[in-house]
Design goal:
Elements (H helix, E strand, L loop, with lengths): L5 E5 L3 H13 L3 E5 L2 H76 L1
Parallel strand pairs: 1-2
């Protein structure tokens, strides 16, 4: 989605202001009109607030995106650590069972002899 640029047209002659605004609108601009300095200042302050809010929202989205990427990396690290811990635990369990089995085999062989 492309956004059309905003333009503030200021002229104390309402017909001149309207003519310029219509021309710019046909060229694809979002046009806001003001016929005096006080109104132009008020509109420009509102536009500045909107722009600042949009900048803040973009920064927040960027921060959230970066946090999401870090969260994904943290989850992968946690998964890898758990996987290693499980493999180590299972390996130790099998080693313990193997040792017990060897002792039983040795005992059975001694009893037969």
């Amino acid at each position: 989605m492309t956004t059309r640029p905003d333009v503030l047209v200021v002229d104390d002659d309402p017909s001149q202001c309207l003519e310029i605004a219509e021309h710019l609108h046909r060229r694809g601009f979002n046009v806001v009109e003001a016929n005096d300095a006080a109104r132009a200042l008020h509109i420009s302050e509102q536009m500045e607030r909107v722009l600042n809010e949009q900048r803040a929202q973009r920064l927040e989205l960027q921060r959230l995106s970066e946090n999401q990427m870090q969260f994904g990396r943290d989850l992968r690290t946690l998964r890898d650590g758990l996987e290693l811990m499980i493999k180590t635990e299972i390996g130790g369990l099998f080693a313990h069972l193997e040792t017990r089995l060897e002792h039983r085999i040795d005992e059975a062989l001694r009893e037969r002899s």
